[in-house]
Amino acid sequence: MSSSEQKRPLALVTGASSGIGWELAQVLAANRYDLVLVARREERLKQLAEMLAQKHGATTQVLAIDLARPGAAAQIKAELTAREAEIDVLVNNAGFSHHGPVTQVPVERLHAIVQVNIVALMELTRMIAPCMMARGHGRILNVSSVVGFTPTPFATVYAATKAFVTSFSEALAEELVGTGVTVTTLCPGTTKTEFAEAAGMTKTIAFRSGAMSAKEVAEIGYTGMMRGERVVIAGRMNWWMVFGVRFAPRKLVARIAKKIMAPTN
């Protein structure tokens, strides 16, 4: 087989139907990866798949699966096994939030946030990482957030799930030293995606004060992953914010976060 005919590596991206996931899929395809795209919205995934094929010659598989449903990760793994698909890069990007006092958020929504942001990510990583280890190579990119470093009122559960993602990913990265598998945590700040609108955050100070583009965040995340970095904070201002909160009193950090995330009329 000539070098031009060699099999392209395969990347799986969750939450690929919009935002950072959509852009990460494009960055991966531009770097000669084939894709497995996972999200609820099948039509959006098909649209992205067609674009990736036309622009980059990528072969793309679409899995329209709702990660908020228990057992979603097992369903994805079963599909991969049936298709004999070996994942070289796993991107756990899917996630969503709530906005407002946690005591007023429907319990069902809180369960769904935990299911998508924590359980599906953890299970998918657990199911795919051993296959990477057996082959002696692989990269995992888990998308967290800068709010994972801060107690964040009005996004209470979301921020807590991202704290889990960051801690889980950093610990796993250390566990996998010497296996050929790297784990990178991408921590964006406010980003121009559908996320804020879906969570009802568009009028908060956090999203009125400027946001990075999803494309820029995706490129930063991809570069950090390929370098094998453990934690990648997107944007200089976000880096300084994370650095600062490590030394500030936690009560003060929570109070500032509360003002930034306060609901507006």
TrEMBL record:
Which Pfam families does this chain map to? adh_short
- Source domain of life is Bacteria
Name the UniProt key words of this record, in alphabetical order: Oxidoreductase
Give the UniProt entry's GO cellular component terms: membrane
Residues annotated as transmembrane: none
> Which InterPro entries does UniProt cross-reference here?
NAD(P)-bd_dom_sf, Sc_DH/Rdtase_CS, SDR_fam
Q: Which Gene3D superfamilies match?
A: NAD(P)-binding Rossmann-like Domain (3.40.50.720)
| GO MF term list | oxidoreductase activity
Asked whether the UniProt record includes Oxidoreductase among its keywords, one would answer yes
Query: What family classification does the UniProt entry report for this protein?
Result: Belongs to the short-chain dehydrogenases/reductases (SDR) family.
The protein's name in its UniProt record = SDR family oxidoreductase
* Naturally occurring in which organism (per UniProt): Terriglobus albidus
